[in-house]
Design a protein that fits this description.
heterodimer, A: alpha/beta, Rossmann fold, four-stranded antiparallel β-sheet, 10 strands, about 25% strand, globular, B: mainly alpha, ABC transporter involved in vitamin B12 uptake, BtuC, two-stranded antiparallel sheet, 2 strands, about 70% helix
Chain lengths: ~240, ~325
């Protein structure tokens, strides 16, 4: 479904993405792990369109999207969540999600009718909030929520664009054990329904959820395989998991 | 599950109130009524006090329309334009230049003022909106200064001496040579502008513009072509301010490039910030307060700009949310 072919990106002398080739099959949950500075976020940015690669291609559903701007990729069914929580702080939770729904309900050059009274935006928004367990918080202003709740909102907004492919950049970042467990169950409920590329530090979560795992070290994929293979892989153990 | 959603849905289908809180409603309505009635009463009773005269208030109302339009992009869209006075100048010259050539119809002047301002906003916005932050501020100011020097160089229309308009725009149904009629027209335009901004910022389009202010990166990731939406808002604000310029030109019957200098743009920005950015009536509170303080201080001393500056700095530092914030909070201190 998503094919990354020989992707390269460097900043000055630093090679952040070094000939990454990777395929994500439809319906799988594919995780990317790697130590800090391995180039995970740079890779995500190229997939979402925020950064343009120096070389290589990103092919999504048979279409080369390497140079397609971010906002158009969303309309191909590709949604992302951000490592650093990226919601609309001044708006209520439901307004946040309704804006995501609205993005995929035709153009928004509609200047007169109030948006907040439209059930065709609010209802799908509430349904997504129900899914991630935030429905009771719908009226809360985003800035008044806890970090964990904002991470859930982050996922809700990605889901509300009704994507076929989810690009999740460290959804568990900064979460406590309980919040992480809640997030794992949200992601598990999405498995099979959506194709997911998950970049994550939380090893327990990754090994619990992933169908396949790729290991990124210094911008290179050093191994791809099933969780149990990755666990056994000697290169991975020395490069990343240490002696553990 | 579906039942709970439809039950919840109803409580989340509300349009925002035009006036905000309960105290906001009372104070705002009272303020707007006073703004309408006091100058009319003074006019009919023959009170010769500058501060309540029709002329003085009409000028304020023109500036208030300009501030309301600036607030649409500055307060709701996060586009800090430092060149908004350009549209006042363009709007005014769209009255002055045709009048100079003998075309006196308001049905020409007003649409022309709006269209020319919107076009200027489209061209300059298309370029300016490719930049961000302080670069955007500087480039909008630079474009406005280009407009300033353009009119300054038009010797035919007075250059820096300005241009006198010998006859106000002719509208068949009303006669705005009568200053009370012009006042009422301006007041109506102000109310219409506020209502238009209210509808726009709460529409789908407005939600997108507010989303861009809050987090443009996220808006792009959600699938919005943010540039197109921001540019549209920029053009709407430009057109609305062009109307303010046409009204101001009609009011002063004398126009000069000074109307669109960068310090004028700064004053407009200040009115918006003083009144409360991103609030519907804030720019009106800001414009009235700004011009009143300016007028009162300058009657005491020729060095009025100094205490004025101090007052402005203090108000920004200590009044959270501007005057509108103060009004919305009302008696509930927190």
């Amino acid at each position: 479904m998503l094919d990354i072919q020989g992707l390269k990106k460097s900043f000055g002398g630093v090679v952040a993405t070094d000939s990454v080739t990777l395929g994500v099959d439809a319906g799988e949950l594919h995780a990317i792990i790697g130590p800090n500075g391995a180039g995970k976020t740079t890779l995500i940015a190229q997939l979402s369109g925020d950064l343009r690669p120096d070389a290589g291609h990103v092919v999504f559903n048979g279409r080369d999207i390497t140079t397609v701007p971010t906002h158009r990729r969303s309309h191909f069914g590709l949604a992302r969540s951000f490592q650093i929580t990226s919601v609309f702080m001044g708006l209520s939770v439901i307004d946040n999600v309704a804006l995501a729904v609205q993005a995929h309900d035709g153009h928004s050059f509609r200047f007169w009718q109030p948006a907040t009274t439209q059930a065709r935006l609010r209802k799908p928004a509430l349904e997504v909030l129900e899914k991630v367990g935030l429905a009771s918080r719908a009226g809360t202003i985003a800035s008044a929520m806890s970090h964990g709740e904002r991470r859930q909102l982050e996922i809700a907004m990605a889901l509300a664009t009704d994507p076929t492919f989810l690009l999740l950049d460290e959804p568990m970042a900064g979460m406590g054990a309980e919040e992480s467990a809640a997030m794992v169950s949200i992601l598990r409920s999405l498995k099979g329904e959506k194709t997911i590329l998950l970049v994550e530090h939380d090893m327990d979560a990754v090994f619990a959820l992933a169908d396949r795992i790729s290991v990124l070290v210094y911008g290179r994929i050093i191994a791809t395989g099933k969780p149990e293979d990755i666990r056994k892989n000697a290169d991975v153990r020395s490069a990343y998991l240490g002696e553990a | 599950m579906t039942d709970t959603i439809s039950a919840r849905l109803d409580e989340h289908l509300r349009a925002p109130d035009l006036f905000g809180s309960a105290s906001g409603r009372i104070v705002t309505l009272a303020f707007m009524v006073i703004l309408l009635c006091v100058p009319l009463a003074a006019h009919f009773l023959g009170i010769r006090l500058q501060l309540v005269s029709l002329d003085f208030i009409t000028r304020i109302l023109c500036l208030a329309i300009a501030a309301v339009s600036l607030n649409l992009i500055l307060g709701f869209g996060g586009m800090i334009s430092f060149g908004h006075a350009a549209y006042i100048g363009i709007g005014a010259y769209c009255v002055g230049i045709p009048a100079y050539h003998g075309y006196e119809s308001g049905w020409l002047h007003f649409p022309l003022a709006i269209a020319a301002s919107a076009l200027f906003a489209l061209v300059t916005g298309a370029i300016s909106l490719r930049t961000k932050g302080v670069y955007f501020i500087m480039i909008t100011m630079a474009f406005a200064q280009m407009g300033y020097y353009f009119f300054l160089s038009l010797d035919e229309y007075g250059g820096d001496d300005g241009l006198t308009i010998y006859s106000r725009s002719v509208l068949d149904i009303i006669n705005i040579e009568n200053k009370m009629v012009l006042f009422l027209l301006t007041y109506t335009c102000l109310v219409a502008s506020i209502y238009a901004v209210y509808r726009i910022v709460n529409s789908r389009f407005g939600m997108v513009v507010r989303g861009c202010q809050s987090n443009e990166t996220r808006m792009k990731a959600l699938g919005y072509n943010t540039y197109a939406y921001k540019l549209t808002a920029y053009v709407i604000a430009g057109g609305m301010c062009g109307l303010a310029g046409a009204l101001l030109g009609n009011f002063t019957t004398f126009i000069s490039p000074d109307m669109m200098g960068w310090s004028r743009s700064g004053e407009l920005m200040f009115m918006v910030i003083l009144g409360g950015t991103g609030s519907l009536f804030g720019p009106v509170f800001g414009a009235v307060t700004f011009v009143f303080i300016e007028e009162v201080l300058s009657s005491f001393t020729t060095y009025w700009a100094l205490p004025f500056g101090v007052l402005l700095v203090l108000s920004v530092l200590f009044i959270k949310g501007g005057l509108n914030g103060l009004i919305q909070r009302g008696w509930n201190r927190d």
